[in-house]
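Hi team, as promised in this morning's meeting, here are the two structures we talked about. I've kept the exact order from the run log so nobody has to guess. The first one is mostly here for context; it's the second one we should focus on when we meet again. Sequence first, then the predicted structure tokens.
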Amino acid sequence: MEGCTEETISEVQLIKPSLFKLFLACLKIGTFTFGGGFAMMALIQDEFVNKRHWVDADEMLNIIAIAQSVPGVIAVNSSIMVGYRVSKIKGALVCALGAVLPSFISICIVSTFYLQFRDNKYAIGALRGVKAAVVALMCSAIINIAKPSVKDIFTGIVCAIAFILAIFTEINAIALILSGGVIGYIYYRRRKCAN
């Protein structure tokens, strides 16, 4: 079929890390990102794809899409999937531990001192600054994910419709993701059959 070529595999050689390196990378992600999963996506992509070359950009997008579609925290799910991809069950377990350990330790410490600091004006000011930075990180993640995901007019339209529905309706995120998958499957299947 002329004009219908499969996407080429990334030119970057993917590297298989040791379990310790997997743990340290996920520990770094869990330690230095604030604001939840979407805020972590930019750092996860940078760490796993750009710096360490454990997965390529297209595969990372697939991992993010799947991680968002299943129960759990997207950053932990993504880390587990990358760990499994490069080192199977041991890699998944090590990545899960690395991704959640910083949050677990932080929450234990914060909950111990919460009552003492909840009305502290400096602590409140620091949290406001963190929230503002988190918004910037989330915007960065959205842009980094959108660039390679919106590949043609069809994906642009699906993205725009899903965005509008997510903002202006009460439609569940899972319903939007599954609907996008079904619509994409039908569209590309019909397109393939037409060729």
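And here is the second protein, the one for discussion:
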Amino acid sequence: MDAPNRLRISRFASGKHWLLRGRDETSTDHHNAWSACGKWLRIFKALVVEPDLEWAFIDGSYAKAHQHSAGAASGDDEGIGKSRAGNTSKIHLAVNAHGLPIEFEITGGQINDCTQATSLIAKLPTAQAIVADKGYDSEAIREQIEEQGAKAVIPRKRTSVKGNADLDRGLYRNRHLVETPSPG
């Protein structure tokens, strides 16, 4: 693409349509093409250089999809599902000790956090501690974290017999880093 038609990425954060200078089309086509060929994922991976994995925080967050977003003609998994909020996607995110995203997975909104935890945790082999909320309270998840040589900082549910005597509450207070990740 020559200089007058370069992609202008203003409004990226707000989700507005991008504009191509000198042309009449939006760059939604370019965004979709980059997504299909994996370019966005390669850009993300290139930006994650030597993350600080002293601590890693994981959590899931919903993203509401447009009411007409479901039912695409393609046979591919679009990462959109039905939940109480309607059509939603769920972003399962891992951030490092500074709140910078290091790994993510996108699923339909009806997918439970703990079902995606094993693959997300497997992508964090060098973390010293993995912090998560009660949605990840499972002995299988705790065992996987400990097998990787990390400490599991996950509060137990109220119905648990074991209780939270061993929970590192000081480290758990930093879980806000995954709730409001820094863009970098």
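Starting points for discussion:
Strands lie at 7-8, 19-20, 55-64, 81-83, 86-95, 101-108, 129-131, 151-153.
The chain has six helices and eight strands.
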